[in-house]
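Field log, afternoon session.

UNIT: design team B
ACTIVITY: writing a sequence onto a fixed backbone
BACKBONE:
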C-alpha cells in the first residue's frame, strides 16, 4: 500500500479513513457477522460499497471471512487482532461525539457498549468488550 506521507495519522487514515470501514468494524463488535446483517446498518451502505470494503478489510488483515459448516454460501466475518485493536479508536470517536455533537442517538445494538462507558469508563469498556469479542470469535471459529 502506498501512503501519502510518513505521518502515523495519515497512514492510519489510508487504512481505515474512508466513510465505511470503521462502521463495518463497529458492526462486527455489536454482533453483525454476515453480509446481509451488515446491509442492515442504520447508515444504509450500498451493496457494491459493502463488498468493496469487506474485500479491502480482508486484504488489510483487519477482518477474516469464514464459511458456515455444511453451507459454503453463508460467509461470516470476524475481526482479527488488528481489527480488535481498532476498538479504542471507535470508543474515542463515540466519546468525542457524545461530548461535542449534541444529541446523539445510539442504535439499540450499540446501547450495551454505550452504557458500559458510563459503568466501566472507557478503559474498562475497552478491556471488557475486547475480551468478550475474542471469546465469541473463538467460539464461532471453533464451530466453523
Amino acid at each position: 500500500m502506498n501512503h501519502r506521507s510518513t505521518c502515523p495519522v495519515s497512514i492510519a487514515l489510508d487504512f481505515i479513513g474512508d466513510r465505511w470501514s470503521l462502521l463495518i468494524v463497529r458492526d462486527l463488535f455489536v454482533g453483525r457477522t454476515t453480509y446481509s446483517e451488515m446491509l442492515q446498518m442504520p447508515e444504509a451502505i450500498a451493496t457494491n460499497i459493502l463488498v468493496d470494503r469487506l474485500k479491502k478489510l480482508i486484504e488489510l488483515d483487519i477482518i477474516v471471512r469464514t464459511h458456515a459448516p455444511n453451507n459454503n454460501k453463508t460467509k461470516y466475518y470476524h475481526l482479527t487482532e488488528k481489527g480488535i485493536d481498532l476498538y479504542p479508536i471507535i470508543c474515542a470517536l463515540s466519546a468525542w461525539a457524545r461530548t461535542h455533537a449534541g444529541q446523539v442517538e445510539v442504535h439499540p445494538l450499540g446501547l450495551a457498549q454505550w452504557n458500559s462507558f458510563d459503568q466501566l469508563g472507557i478503559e474498562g469498556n475497552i478491556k471488557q468488550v475486547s475480551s468478550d469479542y475474542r471469546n465469541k470469535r473463538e467460539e464461532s471459529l471453533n464451530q466453523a
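LOG NOTE: Helices lie at 8-16, 21-29, 35-38, 47-59, 81-84, 87-100, 111-143.
NEXT ACTIVITY: expression trials, pending approval
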